[in-house]
Design a protein that fits this description.
The protein is α+β, with helices and mostly antiparallel strands. It is built from ten helices and twelve strands. The chain is rod-shaped and about 155 Å long. The two termini are 44 Å apart.
Length: 460
């Protein structure tokens, strides 16, 4: 993969991350705005319930009237703080069912699409006489006091607000046969909270369309980006393959064309006409055939195994394989190449296309010679109604990384030690297609710098 494509991919990923962050930020802001609007709307609805002279307001007035009487007794030291607060709880327990009933009735009349609850909690009770302050109750995280309404855990987002009751209290009361007078300043502070079941889920459901659209756009952008990069890489590979193909086929055509040119010059000299002319004509004919086969190979290799039309015939296995090896032996120019044969001695026959199967085997043998093999071992035997052909060479081998691509079209194994290997990277691909067309399999095993073995299994 070229550096430009890598830079493009990295830049695209960074841009995609940036787009995701911006989109996430916008969605978060939209959620905050919708949540705030939803909560404020709910708070206003609760505020309208507690109007002057309403049943809810009357219940709170009763609570205040009874509690103020107890405060007078506390001021006169008839009761202590603990008893005062316990008395307040008793009053609340008696009034709260009526408060909840009236609240539910009011909420039901609003026909809200969600379950809304409310309660009032005590924050502080402070009384003063002169400059002296007496804190009767002060709320904290560990110390909570519910006044009226439902019991639930407070959520800071759903706090309606605080309310304070501040008054100067003067009273006269008979205590132990004596008329006692009292005067104190009262500060009573409470907090109003609401609770909406799964209100965050409700807000998200209102944003469902926006979220789905955002996800769709995000996936669409990723898809388009992936498709574009994939196509770019594919086009780059195709361009590289085309370049290699043109370079290789040009190189392959040069050799027979140069030989033809030389043969033509020899014909013109007309020396030793009978012998030289016949030999030269034979050379021209062989090179022409080679050129034709080279062209045919390029054309045929565009076919898959399903498109190859076979003309099968019954062949004696031993005779057929030996004939193929004998023909290959004649074409070898190097005298130091040895063909070691281990062919089964049998009269068994195999039903194959002579031309195609021969082409497949010769391609593998030629490949062994190309990549440094000077001792080639050929074994043939029958197992489970299949012909097993094994071709092993002692050449340079193929790395495990490249071995899995060895039957791919136009693939040529890279090796720094050998620079003069000719070919189009089509031979093994073509052999694989021929074996598949015969419903057989071919696979390779290799050990770098030691050997390569091709194994062919063909049904009889």
């Amino acid at each position: 993969m070229s550096k430009k494509i890598i830079v493009l991919i990295i830049t695209s990923i960074i841009g995609l991350i940036g787009l995701s962050l911006i989109q996430g930020y916008l969605i978060k802001n939209t959620y905050s705005l919708k949540k705030n609007f939803f909560v404020e709307k709910a708070k206003k609805r609760v505020g309208k319930l507690d109007t002057h002279n309403s049943p809810l307001d009357s219940i709170q007035d009763i609570l205040g009237d009874v509690f103020i009487q107890d405060l007078d007794r506390y001021h006169l030291q008839e009761i202590n703080k603990k008893k005062l607060l316990n008395r307040l709880r008793v009053i609340i327990d008696s009034l709260n069912p009526s408060f909840i009933k009236e609240f539910d009735k009011k909420i039901a009349s609003k026909k809200l699409p969600y379950n809304l609850k409310y309660h009032k909690t005590l924050k502080s009770i402070i009384i003063r006489k002169g400059i002296k302050a007496d804190t009767i109750f002060k709320a904290s995280k560990e110390k909570q006091f519910k006044l009226l309404g439902y019991k639930f855990k407070n959520n800071p987002d759903l706090t309606v607000g605080n309310s304070a009751w501040e008054t100067e209290r003067s009273f006269k009361k008979e205590w132990k046969g004596e008329i006692k007078e009292g005067n104190y300043h009262l500060f009573f502070e409470s907090q109003n909270d609401i609770n909406i079941d799964d209100f965050e889920t409700i807000v998200f459901s209102e944003m469902k369309g926006l979220l789905l659209l955002s996800v769709f756009i995000f996936v669409f952008v990723i898809g388009v980006l992936f498709y574009s990069i994939k196509n770019l890489i594919t086009q780059k590979k195709i361009a590289d393959i085309k370049t290699d193909f043109i370079n290789n086929i040009t190189h392959e055509f040069k050799t027979p064309l140069a030989t033809l040119s030389l043969a033509t010059k020899m014909l013109r000299k007309q020396e030793n006409e009978n012998l030289t002319t016949n030999s030269t004509i034979n050379t021209i004919e062989r090179q022409n055939i080679r050129l034709q086969k080279l062209i045919d190979q390029v054309l045929n290799n565009s076919l898959g195994y399903k498109e190859i039309t076979l003309k099968k015939e019954s062949l004696l296995i031993k005779e057929y394989i030996n004939t193929v090896l004998n023909d290959f032996q004649i074409t070898l120019k190097e005298e130091n190449i040895q063909l070691q044969r281990e062919i089964l001695n049998t009269n068994e026959t195999i039903f194959v296309d002579n031309f195609y199967m021969t082409t497949a085997i010769l391609n593998i043998l030629e490949n062994a010679v190309k990549y440094g093999g000077n001792v080639i071992n050929i074994k043939a035997c029958i197992e489970e109604k299949k012909l097993l052909i094994s071709i092993t060479d002692n050449g340079i081998g193929v790395s495990k990384k490249q071995l899995k691509y060895i039957f791919d079209k136009f693939f040529r194994a890279e090796n720094k030690e050998i620079h003069n290997v000719k070919g189009l990277g089509l031979g093994l691909y073509y052999s694989n297609q021929i074996i598949k067309a015969h419903e057989g399999v071919i696979f390779a095993e290799s050990e770098k710098e030691k050997s390569t073995t091709f194994k062919i299994h063909i049904p009889l």
